[in-house]
Specification:
The protein has 341 residues and is mainly α. Helix content is 59%, strand content 3%. The chain has 17 helices and two strands. It has helices spanning 27-40, 47-50, 55-62, 69-90, 96-108, 122-136, 140-156, 166-176, 179-182, 185-189, 196-199, 202-222, 233-241, 248-273, 278-296, 300-303, 332-335, and strands at 10-14, 313-317. Strands 1-2 form a two-stranded parallel ribbon. The longest helix has 26 residues, at 248-273. The radius of gyration is 19 Å and the shape is globular. It starts with 9 loop residues before the first strand and ends in a 6-residue tail after the last helix.
Length: 341
């Protein structure tokens, strides 16, 4: 295993979207309310642990154009909950029977909103509380997008999924990092929605997929230690290329920069040619990638973990990468983005 000194401490990454921040409410107030809600759910984590995610800051950075402070508060509560539900499901000590019971109950939540149910897992009880309040706060069409994305994330948590190639990783990572939940958020925090036709537009689907993969790769770089029950891009790239794991950092950055370039082109196309509000939506989804980069730099969840490899600082730059962004890459999971006009 290479030592921590073998890894770079900082890497520039391409991000053409400028930093932004929601300022109508102080992010610390949003954070405090989310922490108080999580504490009220009687979950096992000590306050010191669930108080250190800085999710309020991250959500205010990811959704700077929000007009609905209540929706932004709900997103922050979800973010705190999702961290520890994911940790609970993937922990070494969690039995397989309990994992299956929890995930099945999580999926049932969406079919039984408003129905008194005794959940097999406290985390699912907290999920139900959050889902019922979220459902009540938005149009049914927007809720359908959010519920479908939330279910996709729950399915992606099932342990044992074989992810051993870059193509498999690119088919899976956007589900595992909960981007399918965050992708509808510009609608929940904004003052508009999308028709089902707009939501299903292949270009919009590619924008969501790209955002999820970029934030997922950035997560792997910000937390370069391998996870016990989850695929890590650095392991996959090192194995495929036959190179030491620290050298795979350059390959991972080149991949996320290529995907960012394509996302930039897709957003420009939708902004110029699509019927509103699809262009607006695409730009706000892309902004999430910048918000996540800013959040990684402050959250103690990644910055203060003494038992793990130190995080790689990702420094956003608008300097365009020196590579071909117009030729489709060899991975089928994403090459279809290049066919969209």
């Amino acid at each position: 295993m290479p030592s921590a000194d073998a890894y770079p401490r900082e890497m520039p990454v391409y991000c053409p979207w400028p930093a932004g921040q929601y300022t109508a409410t102080d992010w610390k107030d949003i954070e405090a309310e989310a922490v108080a809600w999580y504490g009220s759910q009687e979950l096992p984590e000590p306050p010191k642990l669930y108080s250190n995610t800085t999710s309020g800051y991250g959500m205010c950075r990811a959704f700077p154009d929000a007009v609905d402070a209540t929706a932004l508060q709900l997103i922050t509560q979800y973010s705190v909950w999702a961290f520890f539900y994911d940790d609970h499901i993937t922990a070494r000590g969690t039995s397989g029977d309990h994992v299956r019971s929890c995930l099945a109950a999580s999926d049932r939540v969406f079919d039984t909103l408003g129905v008194p149910v005794t959940e097999p897992c406290r985390y699912v009880g907290a999920q139900r509380d959050l889902a019922e309040r979220w459902h009540a706060s938005m149009p049914e069409s927007t809720w359908s997008y959010l519920a479908a994305g939330w279910r996709s994330w729950i399915t992606a948590l099932i342990p044992g999924r074989p992810v051993t190639t870059v193509d498999a990783y690119l088919s899976w990572r956007h589900l595992d990092d909960a981007s399918t939940v965050y992708a509808p958020m510009p609608l929940t925090t904004g003052d508009y929605t999308l028709t089902s036709h707009q939501w299903q537009d292949p270009r919009a689907a590619a924008v969501r997929h790209a955002m999820g993969l970029i934030t997922g790769i950035d997560n792997d770089l910000s937390s370069p230690t391998s996870e016990p029950h989850s695929a890590h891009l650095l392991d996959i790239l090192a194995a495929e290329a036959g190179i030491p794991r620290p050298q795979a950092v350059d390959e991972a950055v080149a991949l996320r920069n290529l995907l960012t370039c394509r996302l930039e082109h897709l957003v420009a196309d939708l902004t110029a040619n699509a019927k509103e509000p699809l262009g607006r939506y695409a730009g706000q989804v892309a902004q999430i990638t910048r918000g996540h980069l800013d959040w990684y730099e402050v959250t103690r969840r990644y910055r203060e973990r003494p038992d793990r490899l130190p995080p790689i600082t990702l420094s956003p730059t608008s300097d365009h990468p020196d590579h071909d962004c117009h030729t489709p890459p060899p991975w089928r999971a994403v090459s279809w983005w290049w066919d969209l006009r």
